[in-house]
Amino acid sequence: MGNLWQISEESLSTNLKQMQSQETVFTVGNGYFCTRGTFEEGYPHGTPATLLFGVFDAIPIAKEELANAPDWVGIQLFVNGERFRLDKGKLLSYTRTLDIQTGLLIRTVQWESPSGIKVRINSERFASLADEHLGMIRYSVTLDEAPKDQAVDVSLRANFNAARGNYDVMHWDTLDQGHTSDLLWLESRTKKTQVTLAQSMSFNSGDSELRKEFVDGDTEPSIRLTGSLAPGATITAEKVVMMYTSRDGDEPLQATLDHHQKLLHTAAEATAGSAHTVLVFDDQFQQQKAAWEQYWQQADVVIEGDNKAQVGVRYNIYQLRINVSAHDSRYSIAAKGMTGFGYRGHVFHDTEIFMLPFFTYVLPDIARDLLLYRYHLLAAARKKAASNGYDGAQFPWESTLNGEETTPPSIVHPETGEVMPVLNGFIELHITSSIAYATWEYWRVTGDDAFMRDYGAELLLSTALFWDSRAEKNEHHHNYTISDVIGPDEWHEHVNNNAHTNIMAKRNIQTALSTLKWLKTAAPAKANALTEQLNLTDERLMHMQDVQEHLYVPQDAHTGLIEQFDGFFKLPTFDQSKYKGRKDSYQGILGISEVQKYQLIKQADVLMMLTMLRQETDENTKKVNWDYYFPITDHDYGSSLTPALHAILGNELGHTEEAYRMFMKGALVDIENLRGNTPEGIHAACSGAVWQAVVFGFAGLRVTETGYSTEPHWPDNWQRLAFQFKHKGETVKVDLHR
């Protein structure tokens, strides 16, 4: 592996699954939008998508999904009337590279047309991190060889394609389109949610011999450049696209046109040229590089001695940035980000448990916004709790913009084809404590007292009230229990006293009460207001304390072994040795009902909880539970979430080789499509878990009230591990050498 900042492919795979997987891998984005790595000229059965942060449209059953916007990347090339297509003519050479240091996607193709014309096409594409409304493509065509060594006719057609959907679902109606002397524009609106999107395009070349024509059309308006190309000569054109939505302001079309024209006219004035022909790619790319350089100065993780791990971790850190807005707290990071249609752009606890630690430690302003997303939706969470007969706030398992439950009631199982009821929205409760955990961790690491005073305390107390009312008193055993839930191990449904759920509920109440105590001293007026608003009577607070102290934890006091849920140890074990080489999960192999009968785990459950509470848990408890649960977890085809997360506990317990193996499963899950579902989008939670595995696992970073410590664990060949983080506003640089 050469450049440690690049993902490359040296040949074109015509396997459709592989091609669609690479579309995901080569996504460019900036947090405002992401665009999949499809080809400018298109390809049969490709899945082009540009998804915008928080732009949804309604659908049946699953409520709503991120709406695939009109495709902005299209450029068709015609040479002597023959259209350049990778599935026609002859492909002589092909390379494609994503430079994750600068967010630049580059492709170089040498192609021979059916009539024998040989051309070289080079395209460069980026979504600007410096100007989030801007996308750019620089497209060059060189004539290498032509029959009789004659010049050829060339036509380049840059378009917007409004006929794009989320697979078969079309979300946008064209409102209007038109052009000015320099720009072509398209205005669209989502069918149900009525979000307006304005897109403008300029398509300029420095070649004054080329003729420019604006072609209006409701579904594929375009700008055409036509002319002739002599052997050995090159034509270069730049497609500049600007996008605004009605989420940005009342007049997105005007904002788009103003922004775009200012960009062109400023550049034209600087070069004494014309907005009709001015080239801006180089200048805008310099700004792009500067913005990414600033990001990498904060976020980079350096691994020396293991190139594959180095590229893998950087790729995942790249994904964490392109899939989140730097300033918009109305939406969060989806399970697949904005890189594909999987999970429809819905937000899970993946954000709080797997991704948010990266932002808390590296980009706390974004972490704050991600938590504010939950705070803004407290009213809906209270409504959900009340509708189920409980107090406080119960957060939905899947959510979008309004905070209502968006988990579909049933789906077709992707492996078995069974129609399966989806109970997660009803009884998978631990997302509520996950949000509370992330809130407390953010405060613990950043020391952002203003956030805790104004927002965090209410989040913690509201979620604690839910658990206080959800826990059932067992008079016989003088304790409290939580029945009929799904824990993180979703292969076992309708279980009682899931250890993860109970222990994190206890901690939710505990941190809420601690916060209230702090608030009474730090901001008495706010404490009084919250006490009145949430009806925190002395009697209620005493009950919360009682639940916190006596909520049942199914743990053997002598060995430290925790039972995942009531009766788990009575389930028969499963002989996994018979299924070596399998390509499906155990749920896919056994079926939804059968897998529940065995001690088989989809993803870390007890071990996830111990990882989250690792600084409060003794080593023996970690060891006995690791020894029991690690071997019975489906690390390959269960959940993508937890292999990398296992690396943290694995390192603590001295299983460095196993931890490294788990870490690499996470680091390469999308780059190598290890689970076969990368076409649906990247595994965003896995990206966060990969960062955690390196920083908390291999570096052994521990942050306390007073400072930090590291305890490195070195995989083979690793010689150096360096990164930085922020602790209570101060930047801390860590540089470990073997």
Automatic annotation (TrEMBL):
One of its GO terms (biological process) is carbohydrate metabolic process. Residues 314-692 form the Glycoside hydrolase family 65 central catalytic domain. Keywords: Glycosyltransferase, Transferase. Residues 16-247 form the Glycoside hydrolase family 65 N-terminal domain. SUPFAM superfamilies: Galactose mutarotase-like, Six-hairpin glycosidases. Coiled coil: none annotated. The active site is at residue 490. InterPro entries: 6-hairpin_glycosidase_sf, 6hp_glycosidase-like_sf, Gal_mutarotase_sf_dom, GH65_N, Glyco_hydro_65_M, Glyco_hydro_65_N, Malt_Pase/Glycosyl_Hdrlase. This is Kojibiose phosphorylase. It comes from Dictyobacter vulcani.
